[in-house]
TrEMBL record:
PANTHER family: RADIAL SPOKE HEAD 1 HOMOLOG. The keyword ATP-binding does not apply. This is MORN repeat-containing protein. Gene3D superfamilies: Histone H3 K4-specific methyltransferase SET7/9 N-terminal domain (2.20.110.10).
Length: 164
């Protein structure tokens, strides 16, 4: 990150760095690079608060993206990685594991209509068995694909009738 140190020690301490295109970083530095706890704000609306390592978002933090998406959790080399919560601009919320910015591993997602999905993801796609609870009271347990029932499963209706 190239910019001008306007306050403090931007080499090996705490300081404030401003960027020519706008935006700033306030926080820790090591060897002239953002490192430790800090806040990065960019003119496009991106904001990150949390841990940095060698100039990259790394560790626990929260990020607000220009799209309006919000992420809180573990990051590695500027990517969602580990356990976190991603709420997109339209209100869909995923809580679970991430790998390389994708839903990956166990997690649960709540869609804007109230549908709840619990299962496993691989590169942000459902894989294997899971559970979907629909707002109308129906519940599906079985194979999932693209956040929908797919393949073998059992649909239980509010009246307790089951369909295979």
């Amino acid at each position: 990150m190239e910019g001008e140190c306007v306050e403090g020690d931007c080499i090996n301490g705490q300081g404030t760095l401003t960027f020519p295109e706008g935006g700033k970083y306030v926080g820790g530095f090591r060897n002239g690079v953002p490192h430790g706890k800090g806040t990065l704000t960019l003119p496009d609306g991106f904001k990150y608060e949390g841990q940095l390592k060698d100039g990259k978002c790394h560790g626990q933090g929260s990020a607000t993206l220009p799209s309006g998406d919000n992420y809180v959790g573990s990051l590695e080399n500027d990517e969602y990685h580990g356990h976190g919560t991603l709420t997109d601009a339209n209100g869909t919320k995923y809580v679970g594991h991430f790998k390389n910015n994708k839903r990956h591993g166990k997690g649960g997602m709540t869609l804007i209509d109230g549908t709840k999905i619990v299962g496993r993801w691989n590169k942000s796609e459902n894989i294997g068995k899971g559970v979907i609870a629909f707002p109308d009271g129906r519940k599906y347990e079985g194979q999932l694909k693209d956040d929908r029932p797919h393949g073998q499963g059992i649909m239980t209706c509010p009246d307790k009738k089951k369909y295979v």
